[in-house]
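Query protein
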Amino acid sequence: MAFLDIVVAGPDGSGTSTQVRDVIDYCQARGLKVADLRGDEVDALFHAERFRRFNHRVSGSRFESYAGFAASGLVEEFKHDFLAQAKATLDEGRFAACVDDPSFSFVDPSSIDVAVMEEPSRRAGLSVRGVQLHRSRFGMPDDQYAKAVGYAFDRECEFIRFRKQLRESGKVVLRSRGFESTSTYQEYDGLLLPNAPRREHIIGLPGNKLALQHPPTDIIVVHAPRDWSADEYLSLKGVRMRGRMLDDHEKDVEYQLLVNARYASDWLEGLYELGRSLYGAAPPRIHRIEMYDEDRSPLGKQAIRRRVHEVMDNICGGD
């Protein structure tokens, strides 16, 4: 089977986590085994062969994620043992990877049909999430280049540890955002991002070279209209981000409108055409879903879910 590398993308507030869940449900309904690698090192280790007895403890069934294992009352008694062994494994430096070598904790691609990932991860990418997206809380000015470098480093590590082997094994890789988010969020704009890196600098970073050489097969983009207004963004944010601690990106309305306009245009097509011209890599198929209806009202989760599943039918050939 040829691999699929599917990215779910979109501006803040577009519901990427919800849409990733929609794709997971679609895959599971077709009997595919899902391993959710999102999270920190413990979340990744949970899927390693050395911890198979925890992952398959209940009636031989596979847990999708460590979070599901931890929340299951049926295995409450095993949580302490798993965490103690995971800590000891990490203390030895044997982190999870899809490489069968005693230096690592082997995550066997043959035991997985669908691997779920995120950018940035909460492994090497934790500093991006915790520091770079909240620089104002540290009394530091915004620095889009620092963010781009952080994302690229994390991207390289995740590719080497997991994505390369999963693709070579013909698996489905499902990611919440990818390289295109660095371009849409961190790339230079003369008015709003005058100090940000230009595209030639972004694509020169090692992790981004790998991303252009090995692009996704498909990108599902959920976005607002290209002429999204500040009032519409604020209204949506009031509903979808209520009670959430906002990062510096989410607080900047004009910035969010710029990011959405890039997602809603042919920005991504132009970005991945670079991969074709530089490395001969086939650009991804881009599937766009507008999160507003004809009357300019936001679509509900179920309506978007139906559209995501329609896209997945298209990607999978209607199987």
The beta strands are 4-9, 34-36, 96-97, 105-106, 114-118, 172-176, 218-223, 285-290. The chain has a mean pLDDT of 92. The longest helix spans residues 144-168. The chain is about 45% helix and 10% strand.
